[in-house]
Amino acid sequence: MRHAPLFLALALALPALAAGADTPAPADDTNQNDTNQNDAPATPDGGEDGDAQTTRTLGTITVTGVRPTSLPTQIPTTMEGITGDEAEATINAIDAEDVLKYFPSLLVRKRYVGDFDHAVLATRASGTGNSARSLVYADGILLSNLLGNGASFTPRWGLVAPEEIARVDVLYGPFSAAYPGNSVGAVVDYVTRMPQSFEAHAKLSHHHQDFELYRTRDSYGSTQASASIGDRWGAFSAWLAVNRLDSEGHPMVFANLLQSSGTTGSGTPVTGAVAGRNPRNQPWYLLGATSIVETEQEHAKLKLAYDFSDDLRLSYTFGTWRNDVFRDSETWLRDAAGNPVYSGNVLIDGRRYAVPATAISLQQADLEHRMHGLALKRSSGKTLDFTLAVSRYDYVRDRVRSPTVARPIADTGGAGRIADSDGTGWRSANAHLVWRPNDAHVVEFGVQDDRFTLDTEVRDTSDWQRGAPGARFSAFGGKAALTGVFAQDTWRWSERWTGTFGLRFDRWRAHDGLLANATTVARFAGRSETALSPKAALAFAFTPDTSLQASVGRAVRFPTVSELYQGSLVAGSVVNNDPNLKAERSTTSELSLVHALDNGRLRATVFHERTRDALYSQTNVLVTPNITNIQNVGAIRTTGIELAGEWRALGIEGLELTGSVTFADSIIRENPNFPASEGKWQPRVPRWRANLLASYAPSAQWQFTAGARYSGKQFNTLDNSDPNGDAYTGTSPFFVMDLRARWRPTEHWGLALGVDNLNDRTYWNFHPYTQRTWVAELRYDWR
Questions:
Q1: Beta bridge partners of residue 138, listed in sequence order
Q2: Residue 638 pairs with which residues in a beta bridge?
Q3: Pairing with 659, which of 116, 365, 368, 526 sits 20 to 30 Å away (CA)?
Q4: For residue 144, what are the contacts with CB-CB under 8 A and spacing of at least 6?
């Protein structure tokens, strides 16, 4: 699929050849809350007076009526969006993150249906190992897990069900002073539904995957059921939604041994090991499949709102998410009698290998997380508006049990460990004031305070399945706080020029850090730092349909609690962590040409980012012995171009096409601790990304969709020493196709059939993604 980016680029360009220059103002669908804003943010005088009128000024769009997003749409910079109705019609959206599947330059590392702990969001200049370089919100509540940065600190996607989404919008880059430095990649804003009158919804879906990899050949399925009900009684409205998912995931991890580690000696002769090459092209054996996830997730959300007036609302949100997890495993090794072998000294091709007791093991988890959000918001679009909001996210129960004994003993019990993260979580409070002195001027002020607590303790137990916690094995934890103050001014000073200028001041503190083993506790001194982050964006309108937008912003991403304090103690000395890590400092800029067509729009964006002191796990080769931990990488430079567009009614009524192509050259420029990485590609940032989505609705009852997604060659290591991406722990290119057909025979009933990865591509991002997955949905809507 080497030519896939070129193919998609041509597909994007061809419809523009037949497009006219005169562009009517797009229609506003107030029922869907659709701003139709894709890269067309509102002008500064964008009111919210309920008239539901749309106008175009300076190549941008102003939408009046209830504000559909919390993103600062007045800033003339890149934004993309999709409504919940559009996503339901065109995307096999099993989980909330699936709605982002076709956004330009975005990728979510979702490995299986219901992936709750590794679904990291990647952006233009950040890979799927950089979870703290983006922000995800739902109704103003922070879902990003900023306790750490990596695969296990993913946004809490499970607190949003696809059926409750009104729309999703994405702000690309750190160009709004209202957000902290974690916005360097993107800000994702989910807006969920609130009723205007009585409505009820129910959905039942099933997903099926036939999976073949190495010696694993099996079928995995999942079933999802959801229901919601809402109504409005005068000034008061309420919404209740529940969702349950039972999912079987394919294997995530594969036990392995380098062939070169074999020795002479005695052991159990076995068969079944799979010979292959690892990402570094070293010969190895794969022994079995582990982390075969069975997850039962329950999600419930209650939303209440009271409107004191047409533009003043008090709202409360409560969400709870429960998850029972069992990670199964299978061994491919068999002794001479055909019995499974899980551990011990084994003979493979005449050489002896030691298989650890936990190499092919089990695990179970019991999780319950809750969130609360309270907001008072005035949204008049007139002289003075404001938002006062507080939210809290709690790990009410978060316990993971693992055996330390080998199977088959572990099947019924035996010694193990319990990792307890109860009490971990974060809370946020912010105040945001919007002042409009005149129709051409918007001034914003705000204060934000976020606090994070990480508390994890691992204890031994005599029975890993049911036993009580015993002696401490290890512990780590700490707290961090980020307080920010910002001011931002958007001003249209002529018919052609609009500008936004902002400044953010942050004060960051880390304290109460600790690291412990069975006998020793190490405590770390507190730290405090401050940072200034200026922002600027300008737009110049050549014509009412064509504008040039330029944005620049500085982002300071402070180390997370986990990056600072998660490590280990060996002989009383701290290893594998550095409590003195520097903050990441990024300067990001972009230049966009946006052109509105009579049947869509086109955008070309050139972007550049330079990050100093990027935070990565690497080996410091300048010290003896070498140390591998989270370290600062001197400088990473990313330069690229993004082409995006959408077209409607391309000679066929009901046909719509959207797509994008992104090229990114992301290079490590300085890294004195690991010189072998200098001049190499940043991990998990491919040169090419592309997607294309074609949707055809021949009638109000039928809609057909075909999509294609492409990602080019990439690496998982800083020194790019893993050229074999098509292997476990590798990161491979991929080209996959998706289909969806939806039929609504009546106003209330709907049926959808779809397939993701139609071409059944086996591809990797350390773990394998899903292979061909079929989706069937039945839903009922009453409005």
A1: 141, 190
A2: 609, 666
A3: 116
A4: 131, 132, 134, 135, 136, 137, 155, 182
Helix (H, G, I), strand (E, B) or coil at 9: helix
Q: Would you list the DSSP string of 115-137? A: --SS--EEBTTB-TT-GGGSEEE
Measured over all CA atoms, what is the biggest interatomic distance in the chain, rounded to whole angstroms?
A: 85
Domains of the chain, residue spans: 4-782
590 bridge partner residues: 551, 607
**Close Cβ partners of 247 (under 8 Å, ≥ 6 residues apart):** 112, 113, 114, 207, 222, 223, 224, 293, 294, 295, 296, 297
**Residues β-bridged to residue 354:** 345
Distant-in-sequence, close-in-space partners of 720: CB < 8 Å, separation ≥ 6:
677, 680, 681
Q: Which residue has the tokens 């010969």?
A: 283
Q: Which two tokens stand for residue 615?
A: 């935070």
CATH classification code of 4-782:
2.40.170.20
Which of helix, strand or coil describes residue 86? helix
Which residue from 535, 567, 573 is spatially nearest to 551, judged by alpha carbons? Answer: 535
Q: How far apart are CA 739 and CA 776, in angstroms?
A: 12
| pTM (two decimals) | 0.90
CA–CA dist 762, 770 (Å, integer): 8
Give the H or E element holding residue 8: helix 4-17
**Segment-wise mean pLDDT, segments of 10 residues, the chain, 783 residues:** 41 38 33 36 34 36 48 91 94 94 96 94 96 95 95 92 92 97 97 94 97 96 96 97 96 97 95 97 98 96 96 96 97 97 96 96 97 94 93 97 97 96 96 93 96 97 97 95 97 93 98 92 94 98 96 98 85 74 97 94 97 94 83 97 91 91 98 96 97 95 97 96 96 97 96 98 97 97 91
Residue with structure tokens 């015993």?
A: 470
DSSP for 371-395?
Answer: EEEEEEEE--SSSEEEEEEEEEEEE
